[in-house]
Design a protein that fits this description.
Number of strands: 5
Number of helices: 21
Radius of gyration: 24 Å
Number of domains: 3
Strand order of the largest sheet: 3-2-1-4-5
Helix content: 40-55%
Structural class: mainly alpha
Shape: globular
CATH topology of the largest domain: DNA Cyclobutane Dipyrimidine Photolyase, subunit A, domain 3
Order of helices and strands: EHEHHEHEHEHHHHHHHHHHHHHHHH
Strand content: 5-15%
Amino acid sequence: MTAPVLIWFRHDLRLADHAALAEAARDGRRVLPVFILDDEAAGAHRYRGASRWWLKRSLDALSRDLAAKGAPLTLARGRAETILPALADALGAAEVHAGRGMEPWAREQSRRVHEALTAAGRALHLHTTVVLREPHGFVSGSGKPYAVYTPFAKAMLAADPGEALPAPARIPGAEPPAGGERLDDLPLYPVPGEPDWAAEFGTAWQPGEAHAGARLARFVAGALGRYAEGRNIPGIEGSSGLSPHLRWGEVSPRRVWHAVRAAASGASAETFLKEILWREFSYHLLWHRPDMPDRALKRDFEDFPFEPDPALLQAWQRGRTGYPIVDAGMAQLWRIGWMHNRVRLVAGSLLVKHLLQPWQDGVAWFADTLVDHDLASNSASWQWVAGCGTDASPYFRVFNPVLQGEKFDPDGAYVRRWLPHLAKLPRAFIHKPWEAPEGVLAAAGIRLGRDYPRPVVAPAEGRARALAAFAALRRPAPAAA
């Protein structure tokens, strides 16, 4: 009888277009699917609050899908380099198949697993499951990694992503050894018996491969056609909503790519595909610059004169900045674990530039609160906003939160939804309540400073502080006396 094989699921919690699973299940071999919660390997980048909420439900969906195919999922907790060789030994499996981890900690984890399996006379085979193209194999004409998004995207648009693989019709399951973890025993949220702080997440999200496919179908049939314009309007459903499904690998970027290509052409399709390629570029940067989550890619930016202030950071985190478009975004983030992308840019600019708070604090807060938190995209996007990435927004591009609100939420639909206490403000003042006459504020039931804060810093003052700080960064240091 052919020896069984292990399929180690990581950030690819699906059955379709899964190269590692397809290889593990070929020729009718018996398969043991495994997921390992290895917080020690992830270290400072271990899954945090909102991520753990999503992961629990995604694992539940994957477990049911695998069981329906004939191979129930085994759950484990601990060091992957200890658990996988032990499982392989118990089953008599000679091979472990897995998707390639992209994060620095996941690459180190893969190295340790490879060494442990090799020492035991077994093999680890890594496959492409998270990205369209492996970062180490996609380089510029000069043979170097890409450092600028535009030429990277141009090259990727010209490349053939290949056909998406179907899900196996059936997966003969190997008998799992005793001692696996129950899903409810893993430290994921909500913890049984404790208050469910993420109670509203389920009103917006349904994790799992089937729901990822349904959301993709809904997007290509609807919002995709107006995506080029609609993606910037937070008050409508103009986004795909696919980011958390992509982050957890419930749908592959290749499947999304082909679905969009088949459904549309023109500006909207190209604009959306370039968003997929920004995700790819972020992984490309992280692979070649593994310190990107912590250090500015433009090294001279490390001397930027930030002014860390816990009170300002907390006002931003709690949506108490006094700028409605930002505060609405932070309220949306807190309640459903997601924020519209345009508002992410405005909120990020406010934190780093108007308030002069380190961009790493923004990375950390989003890591806690986003269901689609992705180490590569989160880090690259924050560096873009801060102006310190290799392909960054110029530092002098300081988003004015009032003008951004008036441009992209002109009727205040987004603000009124997420900040209902401002709902009665007229359109003229919905993005600048501090300019409303007392009578207008009274009619809307608002007393500034009590019902809603005044701006923590005035728009013009915030921009001036940002530009002054940037000028100081560029100014030569004075000679020693």
